[in-house]
Amino acid sequence: AQTNVDSLINVLETQKLTSQEQFALYEKICEISLHDLERVITYAKKGLSLADKEKNKSKASSFNEYIGRSYNNNRKFDVAITYYKKALEQAVKAADVEREASINMNLGGVNFNLDEYATALEYYMNALAFYENSNNMRQYVRGLYNVGGIYRMLKNITLAEQYLEKALTIAIEQNDTIGMTKAYYDLGAFYFERGKVDEAQDYMLKSLEWNRLIGNKASEASCLQALSVMYSISVDSRDEAEKYAEEYLHYAEELGDSAILSSAWRTLSNLFREKEYWKECEAAALKALDFNTTDIASKTSITATLLVANIFLENKEKAIAQADASEKQT
Q: How high is the pLDDT of residue 307?
């Protein structure tokens, strides 16, 4: 990806380009650099400057949306909202209804991340109406499972199931593999919350299968984590749960992301706790703590698991130390 970005930048700096060609290159750089906030801001602002010069509000909206997306990816949600709202205002002025829908979807997502579910639902519904009327079925499916997710959080079981099942039905009809993986995953999580473990496992396994077929490693890892939890419910299936947890850890080690590594080791420590493998539980929990740098809630949970493990291992001094650490974190 870096080589591709460098080549695009080289074209910008060495060739004489039309305004439309410059817009296209700025947008490509932003799209493939969303994880790199500084780079996105640099090239989006170049795009904004050109858009202002050309009086092109649609492109100005596009570059503000890119900045919003990058802030969102970097979990700076309040700043993301500011840029999304700028982008939305410019899209409205440009009468760019397709971009309006895209920004509404993104505003729904960032408000969801902030637990502002009523606001998120309003934005998602705005986008959903446009995609249905324009017959953009792939984006319509995305809107359906996003709305279903909101109703899950609002504990509206009937509407959550209705929207998620509709998303899956249309995704299958359209052969929308990405939509299918997401709808299967969300339905698996939904039924697991309802205590319907067999149905939950079936849906999650289908999501895993499709994610593997299309090579979506990040979503595959999410499925593996979910399956390890689902199979750990029953004593008879805990070996299966361990298999999924080990696969999740393997993915985390390949990626090298500390947050995912902490999550993977935490998943294993919880499973070993369920299996009463106390030495393995302690070792995995310590690994989870090593990689956990910012998530206080997870750190508290891991510390509690360590406390339990050390009690059963009769490590009195360690147990007292973990109890003190747990008390300080609460």
A: 87
